[in-house]
Model the fold of this input.
Amino acid sequence: MAKNRDTLKGKFTVPLPDSGPTSLKDLALHLGLSPTTLSMVLNDSPQAISIPADTKRRIFDGARELNYRPNYLARSLRVQKTRTIGVIVPELSDGYSAVVLNGVESALSAADYFYLTTSHLHRDDLLEKLPRVLMERQVEGIIAVNTPIRFKATLPVVNVSGHDEIEGVTNVVLNHHQAAELGVGHLYNLGHRRIAALKGPEFSADTFIRWQTMSAAAEKRGIPFEKVLTVQLQGDSPSPEVGYTAMKSLLARGERFTAVLAFNDISAIGAIRALEEMGLRVPSDVSVLGFDDIYAAAFHNPPLTTIRQPLFEMGNIAARTLLSRLKNDDVPPNVDIEPTIVVRLSTLRVSAS
Amino acid sequence: MAKNRDTLKGKFTVPLPDSGPTSLKDLALHLGLSPTTLSMVLNDSPQAISIPADTKRRIFDGARELNYRPNYLARSLRVQKTRTIGVIVPELSDGYSAVVLNGVESALSAADYFYLTTSHLHRDDLLEKLPRVLMERQVEGIIAVNTPIRFKATLPVVNVSGHDEIEGVTNVVLNHHQAAELGVGHLYNLGHRRIAALKGPEFSADTFIRWQTMSAAAEKRGIPFEKVLTVQLQGDSPSPEVGYTAMKSLLARGERFTAVLAFNDISAIGAIRALEEMGLRVPSDVSVLGFDDIYAAAFHNPPLTTIRQPLFEMGNIAARTLLSRLKNDDVPPNVDIEPTIVVRLSTLRVSAS
DNA sequence: TCGTTTTAGTAAATCGTTTTAGTAATTTTA
DNA sequence: TAAAATTACTAAAACGATTTACTAAAACGA
Done:
């Protein structure tokens, strides 16, 4: 309340140092200038050219002295820009989102943007609510990661691994056709003909397209996936458990196969455990192919052969695309990301038995 | 600009549906009431008791009809509350921060709080700048994860894995003494006497205390760590690479040991790779003990014996502690978290050779 | 019936900035 | 030397809410 105390014997009204943060008005009062002048000078606005250099110095010095920090809320309200974007991910600790987010952050912080992270946990109510509350918070745009867009994109939206063409949404998406060619081609070239498949979970944005392209690539080579060698991942845990369980149930069918095409590295790791518990060695008895190339893939035992998705880059590009949409306000076409195959030791030429 | 268009023949001024979001003033105009009344009713403030039920209904209906969403900036500016907290982590994709963050998010979203995430990447300039910009953004509090506090805590701060007693900072911290007893005790009880140690990287907040307590636990059992069996992790990559490199250089010394005490699971995984490349089998030749119990630990080959830090809970408790500080504004004492040991297959009784 | 209370609201201040539209004093130009 | 331009600023409006302090009309109480 009493931000300024009159010192009885002094000639100046000095702001109390400890009564909350210094506002522009406080500083103006302290310097005997108007807030307008300070604002112009501190923001180096065009009008500030008429302000003499030593007044400017006084202002900068005063700002430093009183530790003046502009109030973000007030400024954002006035200029109608928040330099904040909203990010929606399925879950944070799944080893996928975090790396994408890392790429997002790197691009955003370079542009002095911040972001609010929210997780939808595959819940319908959150998928509807999160975009709304983010927009209430005046985010300038939204990056969705592996997340279905169930809202009208009234502001720029970039979807990482989104496969639907939605008005106002730019997709940053892996070239799944190429990924399937690389993956299935690799196993085929190693001589594998009976390939088991761990299909992605129902709710994952990538499941459908990946399954479709992989199936096509297999069919094209005359080795269509067999239903009895296919099992779908269940549950949304970010642990290898889901791959383990799936492979267990597949093994219970008693079918023979020489290779496993897993939905991702995490499930591949779980699958390997299940195979070994069954006495099957990877890769000598069964080859296992992962997807993503998460950090753990290279150091697993055996090191995983996998289709690499450049997750950091995908996040980074998503953020940069969003930022450029905020500048230009025209919607760029979808961005294609090229996968690569990283051949390690979990896949092997099928033995001539 | 022209938010309202006069329909020449109509008797009402109808707000254009597509000229930006509806403000309270727009809605008030539309309903023929004052913003004051709407605000009172929509926020169910005490004064609203005098407003008759059907007026209230009109207001709610109108709000729904025009899709009115209060502007977060304006409201926050006025009430001086942002329901936002700042989070500072070293890096997002290290498998540690993401899980802690998950716990943070879970607690915050339950309380209708949002958070801004920032990474300091172990850079001094960012360690100084990030708290400042977060405070400029009017966060109500800060959660630091594994991060040194280099700023004056002028608002509530909770530090996860912080070991310094700092005015205004509540630490949520693992009971490292207990962790060391569990870890060293486990290896000792298995008969290990020459134990190699992978010391944490220079910059990690946990390095010093963990090293100190582990050393003490080893000394207490008469098997102090030997310098020649100790190596420090270098570099801040979140990959097992750093553990691999460290173990390589340790092995180059040609010393004998029967167990490795790793700084964390990630480095343990890298170390195992280095050992096996050297022809040493884990656990039959060398036992390896990890720390953290990340998801990958259970599914590694061999499954890692490790000291479990409940990372999700730590983040969750940190957030809940911060929220309660925001309510009470008294600083609670530090929160101690109990570790447990998860015995899997990477450690084994030392053979009687 | 007159004064008080209650009802049903509204006007204006406020939060802390930025920006638009000035203004008074000085300097330059014609 | 008078008009125009420049210099060095400031007052007030605006952003979009909330909150305090009112007010006019109706209802109530004695």
About this structure: Chain A touches chain B through 51 residues (CB under 8 Å). The radius of gyration of chain A is 28 Å. DSSP finds twelve helices and 14 strands in chain A. Residues 100 and 315 of chain A are 4 Å apart (CA to CA).
